[in-house]
Amino acid sequence: YEIPKRDWSSDVCSSDLGRAGRAGLARLPVDRVFSAKGFGTVVTGTLVSGTIAEGDELTALPDGRAVRVRGVHVHGQAVPWVSAPSRAAVNLGGVDAAEIRRGLTLATPGAVPVTQRLDVRISLVGGAAPLKHGARVRVHHGTDEVLGRVSLVGEAHARLRLERPAAMTRGRSEEHMSELQSRFGISYAVFCLKKK
After folding, report:
1. Tens of pLDDT along 43-65?
2. What are the residues whose beta carbons fall under 8 Å from the beta carbon of 69, sequence distance 6 or more?
3. Which of 18, 80, 84, 105 is deepest in the core (most CB within 10 A)?
């Protein structure tokens, strides 16, 4: 399967498209960070919601560090903005590469909650051993991995207590879930549990 190249010069992608035309709250889980000569800090990831444009102010979560978008690249080409779902490289200002890491989420300020407790619905996949109350688990969300403990509330619900704050979103992505289920064996909401 080949991803078709987008024509960034078309009217639909013109740089004069206003903020109102780019609706949605931005969320980009960071999968790679590096420093590029002449550019500074660059992060890559998949923009899973919203739009990111040059000049945008974002927050690196869960740390809460404010960053400014200096530039955006898609498939090696500089573009004025990018909308979800797309892979992107984002050049950041106001932050050193050592201050950003894989697992952080770039988001519209105030759009994504940071928490250490989650109420979740659990769905065990075929062949998975039953989850035990108090079990220590790995929680995978976006590009982040956090250890936590499970407090069972009935057969299909639980509260997770994470060992450190994490940027978490609500909802369910069926495509994302099927990949996580086959890979880790236990899944819930957008999150995935793996026994430690």
Report:
1. 999 999 999 999 999 999 999 99
2. 52, 53, 54, 55, 56, 57, 58, 90, 91, 92, 93
3. 105
